[in-house]
Amino acid sequence: MVAKIQFIKAREVFDSRGNPTVEVDVHLTDGSWGRASVPSGASTGDKEAVELRDGGKRLKGQGVLTAVKNVNTEIDSLLADQSPFDQARVDALMIEADGTANKERLGANAILGVSMAVARAAANSLNIPLYRYLGGVDLELPLPFFNVINGGKHADSGIDVQEFLITPIGASNFRIGLEMVADTYHTLKKMLKDKGLETAVGDEGGFAPRLKSTEEALSLLVEAIETAGYEPGKDIAIAMDPAASEFSSDGVYNFEGKKLTSDQMISYYQEIVGKYPIISIEDGLSEHDWDGFKKLTEVLGDRIQLVGDDIFVTNPEIFQEGIDKGIANSILIKLNQIGTVSESIAAIKMARKNNYTTMISHRSGETGDTFIADFAVAMNAGQIKTGSIARSERVEKYNQFLRIEEELGNSAKMAHFDVK
Ligand SMILES: O=C(O)[C@@H](CO)OP(=O)(O)O
Ligand SMILES: [Mg+2]
């Protein structure tokens, strides 16, 4: 007998910032089941699907009991007797029942928790790993991007740029890449200490030293890579997520004590890309600055990867508009920005069709759930960012890749990054 969904049970648990979030168990008629929990962002895009919070839509720290109740009552009845193997139908039923454009009635956190847990339950019922269930064969591991210096909304370091990431582009496999990054991370820690700078970490496990400028952070990274014995730009390269929506208002960028225009920001990026081994910049400009983002793409798009996060919010409709306008050449994929596994897959397919690269992403508030690791392999996504190696809710995901790499054995490959 092919298994059906028997019942669904959600509960409130806590994420890595101590905020309530949704965890869902999906039970099947054959006795197998799957569990998933939902992450939560701090620097959220305005058009993200709505994370339902008790007594207010986006207030952090508030409970998710309404979202939990929506799963345990309405979604439980809606999906009873449905096939867990028809992910598209399960997701479509929830989207239809919600009835809003941004999932604000049932809550994207309720819907995504169920969507992911259904996939896990289906994989468990077939007794195969999640990445196999979602991806089949011919899979490769993504190139990981590690956030080693935290700023913006993720730390009190006073740095405007939210994330400075390093990526082992020269590594021959995932394990070696992880080792190279660990070396560099420990070297950076020692360097910070020697310079009398703080080594406490931010929300994503990157250091949060009080630095004066972006360039100071970039120089520190180059020095750490070299001191660890690697060649910057060849073995290990740098990426940034300024999350520029957070420091811009009314078309002005309040950056490092100055008020800059979009054009000035673009010139600044050109300058630093010429000076440092930067291969990727995410959200270099505000999600409201589409003209600027287009210009940025014209100026730097053939030299580096330009990732759209807040500007596309993993939303296939908004992304299509961005593609038509020539904005960015890469998309960040966050499942909770759109709220279902199926719609996230649609955004990835759209990227592939239009020659955009894809980077799967964690949120700054995470749980121990490693869903995105399996998802990134299954989708052959090419890239992932899931923090540094100093917070277990992030390390768990990197460790999951090590397990997958071991399982894939000789056929395990890591995605290559085309440095221009
Ligand atoms: O901006 C980002 O890319 C993310 C993840 O690093 O941050 P948050 O989850 O706070 O939106
Ligand atoms: Mg971002």
From TrEMBL:
Q: By its UniProt entry, which CDD domains does this protein fall under? A: enolase
InterPro entries, alphabetically?
Enolase, Enolase-like_C_sf, Enolase-like_N, Enolase_C, Enolase_CS, Enolase_N
Tell me how the cofactor is bound: Mg(2+) is required for catalysis and for stabilizing the dimer.
* Cellular compartments annotated: Cytoplasm; Secreted; Cell surface
Enzyme Commission (EC) number? 4.2.1.11
Any keyword Methyltransferase? no
The transmembrane residues are none
Amino-acid positions noted as binding (2R)-2-phosphoglycerate in the UniProt annotation, renumbered to this chain:
162, 334, 363-364, 385
| Keywords for this protein | Cytoplasm, Glycolysis, Lyase, Magnesium, Metal-binding, Secreted
- State the pathway, as annotated in the record: Carbohydrate degradation; glycolysis; pyruvate from D-glyceraldehyde 3-phosphate: step 4/5
Enumerate the residues binding substrate: 154, 163, 282, 309, 361-364, 385
Q: Which GO terms describe its molecular function?
A: magnesium ion binding; phosphopyruvate hydratase activity
| Cofactors | Mg(2+)
Start and end residues of each Enolase N-terminal domain: 5-134
Q: What SMART domains would the database entry show?
A: Enolase_C, Enolase_N
Q: Please give the GO cellular component terms listed in this UniProt entry.
A: cell surface; extracellular region; phosphopyruvate hydratase complex
> Where is the Enolase C-terminal TIM barrel domain positioned along the sequence?
138-419
Q: Which residues form the signal peptide?
A: none
User: Which residues hold Mg(2+)?
Assistant: 241, 282, 309
Active-site positions on this chain = 204 (proton donor), 334 (proton acceptor)
Q: What does the entry give for GO biological process?
A: glycolytic process
Reactions the enzyme catalyzes: (2R)-2-phosphoglycerate = phosphoenolpyruvate + H2O
Recorded hits in SUPFAM superfamilies, A to Z, give: Enolase C-terminal domain-like, Enolase N-terminal domain-like
UniProt lists the family membership as follows: Belongs to the enolase family.
Q: What's its job? A: Catalyzes the reversible conversion of 2-phosphoglycerate (2-PG) into phosphoenolpyruvate (PEP). It is essential for the degradation of carbohydrates via glycolysis.
Record protein name field = Enolase
Q: What is the source species?
A: Trichococcus ilyis
Gene name tied to this protein: eno
